[in-house]
Amino acid sequence: MERAARIAIAREVIGMIERDEMQYANEPAWEVDIGRFTDKARFLKEKEEFFLNRPQLVAYSADIPENGDYYATSIAGKPILLTRGKDGKARAFLNACRHRGVQLAEGCGHASTFTCPYHAWTFNSHGDLIGVPSKDSFDGLLEDRGLIALPIHEEIGVIVVHPQPDGHLDFDAFMGPMKQHLAGYHMENLRLISGHSQTARINWKHAVDGGVEGYHVPFLHPQTVGPMTLKFFRHIDFGLHHSLVNVSPEMLAMRDMPEEEWPEYCGFSVSNAIFPNTIVSVGEGMAIFQRSDPSDDPGRCDYNIRFYGWGRNPDAEQKARDEAMAAMVLTVAMEEDMKVQSNSQIMMENGAVPSIIFGRREQNVLRMHKNYDRLIGHDAEAALAVERLDEAAE
Ligand code: FES
Ligand SMILES: [Fe+2]
User: Fold this and answer.
1) Cα(24) to centroid(ligand 1), Å
2) Distance from residue 326's CA to the centre of ligand 2 (Å)
3) What is the pTM of this model?
4) pLDDT: is 107 or 387 the higher one?
5) Which CATH architecture has domain 3-54+177-380?
């Protein structure tokens, strides 16, 4: 989204502020079954359909900024190794040694070779097998034993990978108009500040829902990000992807300023849900990357959140500001958002609520769940009727 597009969004928001009007979805509020968060069969279907057979936005270019950098991540439990070769090209591999499958790299760093801890087979950053102790003991079975490469595409500062070696990856088709929406932020200029990952006690969808829903912000975050955000959220529908426009109080002052004097990011940030579960959040101060991947059970996910600043060479003052901001947002994510999301998950599993409701101020969540249901052929009405019957029988 170039500045002209940002100005157009800011104009719409200023109109909302002047009319004191919040955005409501056109479609009605929706009561749905809780099985979408707790049912194992549905969970396995989602894992297969949404994660293991579709392209995934797994990283920013800033996760492997220099030639020779690597970053080990995963897609729904499948370990992925991203490398940037001497040629500057980003590559993706299954992060598994071709001898007996041991994981080769963890975390991120800089390395020209990866040596397996078990028997020291060694691969280079292009995935070639370049060293095998007692090579002659393998009787010619070492042909084509390089790392298994995955389809990858890097553009506009993001990296998309298909988790199947023979998967079809068409970046433009995958991103759709979201590509243009993100392009004007020049995310290729990001720099990693810090990251955090853990197993979280939530269904993967809770973290996506929370990332692009503004309704909760003043209530759950009154001392932290709440005061940094006005209630005039806007929602942009990109088909499978969704965007939430977060308006800062700066926008109030912009009303009386000529457009040329508006800040570069026009007083708002955007949090984008890239199907199925990546949250890409960008604004003036920083960028955030979040993925919540399904692991083995519907009530748990592999949660990964990372923070990025702008510009490759920050001075000490900028670095300190970035680190303080990242620490604050991490506290909000874990102590505020994750805490209630886990609570919601556990209450659902305990049968404390027969159903849940998405309201018209939760437009992105409404639409994302409609997409999920449509793609796996789930009938929420029918599931709700079954849950009601079960409840009546108890
Ligand atoms: S499993 Fe990697 S060298 Fe044996
Ligand atoms: Fe939140």
Assistant:
1) 56
2) 15
3) 0.96
4) 107
5) Alpha-Beta Complex (3.90)
